[in-house]
Amino acid sequence: MTREELDIAAALRPRLPSPLLPVPDERFARHGVRLLLKREDLIHPDLPGNKWRKLALNLRVAEGRPVLTFGGAYSNHLRATAAAGRLLGFPTIGVVRGDELATRPLNPSLSRCAADGMRLVFVDRATYRAKDDRQVLARILDLSSAGDAYVVPEGGSNALAVRGCVELGRELRGLADVVGVACGTGGTLAGLAAGLGDDQRALGFPVLKGGFLADAVRGLQTEAFGGQAGHWSLDERFHCGGYARTTPELHAFAEDFESRHGLPVERVYVAKMLLGLTTLAEEGAFARGTTVVAVITGDEDSRPRPTD
């Protein structure tokens, strides 16, 4: 851990390394595969999972300036950023996709952001889609009266976030053959793969449809490391229709996993990843003797509201 990471860690006291727990599951065991859960959701009560790893270095670079970032009405990233602002004492601004009137009264996710001191700025969807354009971003900053705010992209995924997620891979060196993780913007997968050993591979399960994520991961790795790092691949079969969308089959799978293992399963990210790994095990995709780690990046309480 770098000195910069230690400074933030001293203030927030994350639980690192996150616990790695064996989970006996006959759907894996009958194929000679061992399943472990990497409980990233237990790192910090307000910055669980990949949120801690992606924000820590960004917050160090921000050096107490206001932090402006982006998200939808149920964004876990906005909630984590707002919580970090409260805990570390810096202002936060959340640029929210959608009409403010359509979100009033504020949903529980945005209400928590506001309670933690985040100033919410609502922009229309066309503006939000173009937020990476310099001129559009300048207008958003002006609209937000953000001044010298430090800008963190949607989902927190930038080169610093990717470097922060490298430690997740390092914590798993020598402990797994395959590591599965749900993917939104691709930053966690990009860093995880770079931190694993040469004999390990990371397997990402996109929660959005569209087939764009491979390019995003390659771009993030190039930004962070100068090129592709580690062994990784994507399985795009388990998005269940797109972000925050679920199916009756996904709910049934998640409820069954919960009853088997006593672990609440967040539906938008974690359930899709677990379904993907279980399906692959039952398809015989893993050789006998393989140890598979499922990265649990969020808990049931932090999930956005899914739609069927």
Descriptive account of the structure:
- This protein is α/β, with parallel strands linked by helices.
- It folds into two domains: about 5-45 and about 160-300, Rossmann fold; about 65-150, 3-Layer(aba) Sandwich (Rossmann fold).
- The chain is about 40% helix and about 15% strand.
- The chain has twelve helices and ten strands.
- It has helices at about 5-10, 25-30, 50-60, 75-90, 110-115, 125-130, 135-145, 160-170, 185-195, 215-225, 250-260, 270-280, and strands at about 20, 35-40, 65-70, 90-95, 120-125, 150, 180-185, 200-205, 230-235, 290-295.
- Strands 1-2-10-7-8-9 form a six-stranded mixed β-sheet. The chain has a four-stranded parallel β-sheet with strand order 5-4-3-6, sandwiched between helices.
- Helix 5 links the parallel strand 4 (about 90-95) and strand 5 (about 120-125).
- The radius of gyration is 19 Å and the shape is globular.
- The relative contact order is 0.15.
Walk me through the topology:
Layout lengths: L2 H10 L7 E3 L3 H4 L4 E6 L10 H13 L4 E5 L4 H13 L3 E6 L10 H8 L3 E5 L1 H5 L4 H11 L5 E2 L7 H13 L6 E6 L3 H9 L5 E6 L6 H13 L6 E3 L13 H14 L8 H13 L8 E6 L12
Parallel strand pairs: 2-10, 3-4, 3-6, 4-5, 7-8, 7-10, 8-9
Antiparallel strand pairs: 1-2
* Poorly predicted residue ranges: 302-308
For the record, give the distance between the C-alpha atoms at the N and C termini, rounded to a whole number.
41 Å
Oligomer: single chain
Q: What gross morphology would you assign?
A: globular
Please provide the count of β strands: 10
β-sheet strand percentage:
15-25%
By helix and strand content, what is the structural category? alpha/beta
Number of helices: 12
Query: What is the CA-atom radius of gyration, in angstroms?
Result: 19 Å
Helical residue percent band = 40-55%
CATH topology of the largest domain: Rossmann fold
The biggest beta sheet, please? Answer: 6 strands, mixed
Q: What order do the SSEs take from the amino end to the carboxyl end, as H and E?
A: HEHEHEHEHEHHEHEHEHEHHE
Taking all residues together, what is the mean pLDDT?
91
- Strand numbers in spatial order across the main sheet: 1-2-10-7-8-9
CATH architecture of the largest domain: 3-Layer(aba) Sandwich
